[in-house]
Amino acid sequence: MIYTCTLNPSVDYIIHVEQFSQGGLNRGTNTAYYPGGKGINVSRVLQQLGQQNTALGFLGGFTGDFIKKELDKSHITHDFIETEGPTRVNMKLKSTEETEINGPGPAISVKQEQELLQKIACLKEGDYLVAAGSVPSTITPDFYVKAAALCRKNRVNMIADTSSQALKQIVGQEVFLVKPNHHELGELFDTTIVNVEDAVHYGQKLHEQGAEHVIISMGGQGAVYVSGDTYLQADVPAGEVRNTVGSGDSMVAGFLASIAAGSKPEIAFQTAVAAGSATAFQDDLCKRADVDSLLSHVTVHSLDKGRF
Ligand SMILES: Nc1ncnc2c1ncn2[C@@H]1O[C@H](COP(=O)(O)OP(=O)(O)O)[C@@H](O)[C@H]1O
Ligand SMILES: O=P(O)(O)OC[C@H]1O[C@](O)(COP(=O)(O)O)[C@@H](O)[C@@H]1O
Q1: How high does pLDDT run on average in the chain?
Q2: What residues does the Carbohydrate kinase PfkB domain cover (predicted)?
């Protein structure tokens, strides 16, 4: 069984403004609301790709109700812990540039945090837990480390997609997959990742420190995969980019859906890139048909390990 865990979900509010003027009155041309937060995005794409899963985490208020209704509409099982305050609204402003404003999210009590850890402690051998997104400031900063310890104890495959301090803490833990983007990877090692060589070099370090599979996404420059003796690089297919919010989450879902269906890592990586790009090429997250039609346009090359 696959579980996703979103500590700080969001309603993603997309607003298009033709010429954004800072400090002025701006009127949007079109708007949309999507259930968001990294784990929830992974749940939605997994469902599209035929993998039933359960979404865990914290939700509250009218925004939390919206997310639950949307998940119900998509037939995604969920088991959230209710917060008193409302789930945040993250604004994604589309103008000549993409600007994101992600809120802090509601307060979470120690009791609520314990409740979630108890749910994670009940997962069974062979299950997958996708722990994705930022850790709210009101819970213990090492929440993902605690989750990783429970997963290791119960032989649950943990996937971590996070950034900043939470990513730093997960390094050194035995996890199934980590998927930083190249900015997050650079921040982690206090460097700048400019090319595939850099991505492989630092990806290797994550693998050596406990991550079985490592994917480094590089936006329009494609992605790199590192595990054992397998080093792969993929280019992105051609297409018109409409909205990259959720592309990274779609990659995680693409990889996991493919692995859970019994594919080899090469195919799972190709599916991951197809799913990431399929999301980038439309307003909402990708649909199964989009991923299927992009798959053959994603070229995956083996990289010679001796080069690194
Ligand atoms: N400009 C783009 N063109 C095509 N695909 C893209 C583009 N930007 C992102 N993607 C797809 O989405 C994946 C994840 O994007 P990235 O921005 O690196 O992740 P994140 O959303 O985690 O920051 C990429 O590997 C690629 O497959
Ligand atoms: O938990 P964080 O880091 O604030 O991120 C939450 C945001 O990330 C998203 O999950 C999108 O993530 P990606 O673009 O990295 O795939 C949005 O849905 C949400 O608004």
Answers
A1: 96
A2: 7-281
